[in-house]
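During the reporting period the student researcher (J.K.) took over the structure-prediction task from the postdoctoral fellow and processed the backlog of single-chain submissions. One of the processed entries is reproduced below for the supervisory committee.
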Amino acid sequence: MTSSSSSSSSSSHSPTYLALLRAGPRLFPLKQVHARLLVSGSHRSLALLTKLLSLSCASRSLSYTHLLLASIPNPDSFLFDSLIRTAAKSRLPFDAILFYRCMLKTQLEPSNYTFTSVTKACADLSASKVGRIIHSHVIFNGFGQDCFVQTALVVFYAKCGDLSVARKLFDEMPGRSVVAWNAMISGYEQNGFGEKAIDIFRKMRVVGEEPDSATLVSLLSACSQVGALGLGRWVDCYICERGMDVDVVLGTSLMNMYARCGYVQKARERFDVMKERNVIAWTAMISGYGMHGYGCEAVELFWRMRDEGPSPNDVTFVAVLSACAHAGLVTQGREAFASMKRDYGLVPRAEHHVCMVDMYGRAGLLEDAMQFIRDWIPGGIGPEVWTAMLGACKMHKDFNLGVEVAERLLATEPENPAHYVLLSNMYALAGRMDRVEDVRNIMIRRGLKKKTGYSLIEINDAAHVFRMGDTYHPQSAEIYRYLEEMICKIREAGYVPETDSVLHELEEEEREVALRFHSEKLAVAFGLMSINDETPIRIIKNLRMCGDCHLAIKFISVVAKREIIIRDKYRFHHFKDGHCSCLEYW
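J.K. obtained the following structure tokens:
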């Protein structure tokens, strides 16, 4: 045994070291032990000082920790490693980076432990620039192939959203821990690439790596994004088969997956069996009800939360107000909005204002909506408010007010092509076709194009994506033939196309196919062709469903005798027996 290790061992058994252990991460007892060190002359022991510093940092007494560090004449690498690691683990990432800089100034050589901890700190801060500098230090110091440092770098780049670099590092790793797999799955999921997250998970299973709870939480969120109900159900079965502990995070993820995949009854079952429910769990269930048009259930759960659950936060109020807006529950929405400040001291934010305007507007109370805007949002009205107001004007055919609102909307975000489409639509509905052409020309001059819509349906764990009028699917000919036959049948049942739904289509070639071959109609046709039992057809659309598709699918649900569930950009629509769960509040 070397003299330094012998000294460290003896220090770890000294009365002072035991006193440090008893003090723990508490500032006053630590100062008492520090005083004992000074009186006894043990303040020269780096082992004791390292422990003292680490505990001081863990107690979050940062000014004391920095003063203590500055008083040590010759700190070693182990001291800095311990301090950086403690700061990173104690959610003090900024201080971890400061300690790393202090270490560099002393010209001590960092270790793989140093880089693992300081890279974690950069990831927690999303400090892209600093993290890249540290990556260069990693390579310079010869730790580029260290598996722990590689994993930390993958986590860092994934959290910073630089997924191409994260994936390159990930693919080059000779061996990958579950942490590295989780970093890539979570990175893709959090940046909106649900399909890629699922693809990484499947590769993880192929190589035999077992997922942990963190893996499943990210995977369930990815399933929620893309509507992968089959995989989400597999996760649920996997958890049960292995007897995994379902904590509040995993339980909420399961519940949210079912709700966002159109299975709200199963979401409620998961909610009811949760051993612990925090504000996030309650809010997710209320939001799930709201998305599906079950406004009364959402409000009922909200009142129950107020009586027996945690105090609602501002996100909870967004969920319940949105549920009221989509179910026409004006009285309940007013009461919920009033209770925010009165009962919980919460100041309404832009999201709450949008929900209130949306609620009044959908209920046909356009003047009340405008009055709310004047009273509650006197200045700095954002585009979301005007978008909600515009939707109400269109729904209730107040096209003159709609034109005024659309012009205000365009003034808030003049480079957003979606606003030009809405303004063009309003001009057309108001009969001002000259202005429609003007708007189209402005879009052409500025090179603005509206977002392309698509619909996705999952069959046998495979995702099929459709866009308006496309012929990329290998069964396109059969799909179009089936859809033509279905449209003939629903016409016989009384369906009359809503031509207003294509007034916003600016390109001439799109107008020819806009009504009949919208992406959701193609997806519904493919679903009916491919699923022969009575299983509901489940579809995800990235934009708001148009009025004609909404009407046509109500008729299709009667003719085909099938339940059809569509999740568009804003909510779920459950079509059954010619009715929709949205009750036209969409």
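The committee noted the following: The first helix runs from residue 3 to 12.
J.K. will present the remaining backlog at the next meeting.
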